[in-house]
């Protein structure tokens, strides 16, 4: 049999079409055919399933796919990944690792993919899935005693919970490798939160864990004190900030009065994200967390026909309540300047 070194032209588009049409049979048949043709399972996972999932997210952001279609496509990719895993069992030859999403993080497919990649590399894997509360994670560590923990955080608003989980894992004597976009460009927030290592993706994590593990532990003082009084105020008054901002919007943005229930709910959700990303930026003293969010949100709202003025007014409605908190105001100003 000739072992293909790369996918044929158009294969990625074919697979995207299958998951977009909720064709589970077709998607599973496609990956099975690739395995039969000698394609390495790692390449199917990374180059086909993971890349297609990234494309699915882009299609949702561009308002070309609905949330429902995105979720259905993700479910199909999970089944395809399971089919690859079922065909490629490997006897454990390394240590054991626990893999989980931090509390409040629901994007489980990336860590499921990591789990399968590590199994192929000989690790014994405990995959705990999405949204794992910190106390339950630590209990599991005490019961199983793994050699490492891999924690995923895809959204920066989960960084405070990621920090709590990392601190608890290391207190239990288990080193942590972090991953996911939530830890910032190049994982810049991971070490600040006390992680022993960071990896940009599943392949890098496999390589990182295969050599010099565990690494030299980070300075505990780096992550000892995060979240000042401004962060505390924003978190404690989250509901008030959002509610007052909605009332202000009704007075200063006349179009809001014409919104239906669905649009009002979406606006409330957008304001919630503004407050949550502001809190995350304050927690680790990184304005870029907020400005990156505003840049992304602006593009998403533009794709849905929401004028920039709506976002700008929303930012101002939150900022007007925080005049006694200069750092929060500076972060909000930085975001507002990006709204054209």
Automatic annotation (TrEMBL):
Q: Which Pfam families match?
A: B12-binding (PF02310), B12-binding_2 (PF02607)
User: Coiled-coil stretches, from where to where?
Assistant: none
Q: Which residues form the B12-binding domain?
A: 94-220
User: PROSITE patterns annotated for this entry?
Assistant: B12_BINDING
What are its GO cellular component terms? cytosol
Q: Report the record's Gene Ontology biological process terms.
A: homocysteine metabolic process; tetrahydrofolate metabolic process
Q: List, alphabetically, the InterPro entries matched.
A: Cbl-bd_cap (IPR003759), Cobalamin-bd (IPR006158), Cobalamin-bd_sf (IPR036724), Met_Synthase/Corrinoid (IPR050554), Meth_synthase_dom (IPR036594)
One GO molecular function term of this record is: methionine synthase activity
User: What keywords would UniProt list here?
Assistant: Cobalt, Metal-binding
What is the protein's name according to its record?
Answer: Methanogenic corrinoid protein MtbC1
């Amino acid at each position: 049999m000739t072992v293909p070194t790369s996918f044929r032209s158009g294969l990625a588009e074919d697979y995207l079409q299958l998951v977009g049409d909720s064709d589970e049979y077709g998607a599973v048949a496609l990956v099975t055919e690739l395995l039969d043709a000698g394609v390495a399972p790692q390449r199917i996972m990374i180059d086909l399933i993971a890349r297609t999932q990234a494309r699915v997210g882009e299609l949702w952001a561009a308002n070309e796919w609905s949330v429902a279609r995105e979720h259905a496509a993700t479910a199909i990719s999970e089944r395809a990944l399971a089919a690859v895993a079922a065909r490629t069992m490997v006897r454990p030859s390394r240590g054991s690792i626990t893999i989980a999403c931090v509390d409040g993080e629901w994007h489980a497919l990336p860590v499921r993919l990591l789990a399968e990649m590590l199994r192929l590399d000989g690790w014994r894997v405990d995959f705990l899935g999405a949204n794992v509360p910190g106390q339950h994670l630590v209990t599991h560590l005490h019961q199983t005693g793994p050699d490492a923990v891999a924690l995923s955080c895809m959204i920066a608003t989960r960084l405070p919970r990621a920090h709590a989980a990392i601190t608890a894992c290391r207190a239990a004597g288990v080193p942590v490798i972090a991953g996911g976009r939530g830890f910032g460009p190049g994982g810049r927030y991971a070490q600040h939160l006390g992680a022993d290592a960071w990896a940009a993706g599943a392949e890098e994590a496999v390589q990182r864990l295969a050599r010099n593990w565990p690494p030299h532990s980070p300075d505990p003082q780096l992550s000892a004190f995060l979240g000042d009084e401004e962060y505390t105020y924003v978190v404690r008054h989250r509901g008030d900030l959002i509610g007052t901002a909605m009332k202000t919007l009704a007075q200063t943005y006349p179009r809001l009065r014409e919104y239906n229930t669905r649009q009002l709910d979406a606006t409330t959700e957008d304001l919630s994200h503004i407050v949550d990303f502001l809190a995350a930026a304050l927690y680790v003293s990184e304005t870029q967390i907020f400005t990156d969010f505003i840049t992304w949100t602006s593009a998403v709202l533009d794709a849905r026909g929401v004028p920039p003025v709506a976002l700008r007014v929303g930012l101002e409605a939150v900022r007007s309540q925080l005049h006694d908190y200069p750092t929060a105001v500076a972060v909000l100003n930085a975001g507002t300047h990006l709204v054209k």
